Amino acid sequence: MDTARGTAFNLTLQSCPTRLYWRVFLLGAVLLILLSSGCSSVRLVYGHLDWWMDRKINSYLELEGAQKDLLQQRVDDFHRWHRQTQLPRYADFFEQLATEVKDTSHIPARLKRIEKQVDEYWDNSVIMLSDLLLPLVYTLSEQQIDQLEENIQEEREKSLKKWDKAQKKREKEFRKQTERWLGDLTSEQEAIIDQQVATSTFDPKLRDGQRQRWSKAFIETLRTKPTGYQQRIRELVINPQSLWAEDYRKMHEQLRAQAMALAEQIALSATPEQRQHLQATLQEYAADFRALANEAE
Questions:
Q1: pTM of the model
Q2: Is 55 exposed, middle or buried (0-12, 13-18, 19+ CB in 10 A)?
Q3: 19 pLDDT above the threshold of 80
Q4: What's the pLDDT score for residue 165?
Q5: Which residue, of 115, 187, 220, 239, has the greatest Cβ tally within 10 A?
Q6: DSSP 8-state secondary structure symbol assigned to residue 178
Q7: How many CB atoms lie within 10 A of CB 152?
Q8: Percentage of residues in the chain with pLDDT exceeding 70?
Q9: Considering Cα of 210, then 212, then 213, then 218, what sign does the dihedral take?
Q10: 3-state class of 290 per DSSP?
Q11: CB-CB contact of 237 with 134 (8 Å)
């Protein structure tokens, strides 16, 4: 079953392109750790969390004076909070998954439990980072809001172009990330992944339309500052689902179902060697998370 657990953790984050701009800021380094870097480089990547977040935010905004100081303080606060409170939970989670690698029973129910836990981790960090950074957002000048709006638009256009480029690239990436957890894939597993990519219900135009709705509401609220606008901004950041159109919500649900089905298929097809590889990988990540959590600031 554990194959399903590792794959589900990966796919839950990868297969739902519904996370909006603040969620890109959020957990950025953690996603890099889990999806881009090998276990041996986890500590190095995580050590640059504050730098990565600062750079990412500054790619959207040109901050000034006290704003820069506040950003650095709040990014440091988030890094400290995440290291001290979240990494131990990730370590516990991965260690628990590692103990269940050889158990192939009740796979669908376990996948649902994993999905729920991953969502909880994500939402915890979204809320914390939002509450730390939104006071900075409220200080933006009209010129900075204009700049933010322009940069969001540019990011949307880039994202749409990237998706349109190549299916083969997506197949390769899915295989790469699955191999990170399982080791070498069988021909059957490669075919399963390729079929998933080819039949995905994800529509980049639906996502782009949703991003337009969200950014329009966010920028307009920030610019006009109606009564209670700070609470409205926070709601948009923490709960972007409140603006989801029905067709977009349906696509999101289908994507989650497809990701779960793929995880289940890969789990059922896993070899004993792959389960052993997954168990070792989970244990290595857990050990690195534990070590990072114990490091002194």
A1: 0.81
A2: exposed
A3: no
A4: 63
A5: 115
A6: H
A7: 20
A8: 81
A9: positive
A10: helix
A11: yes
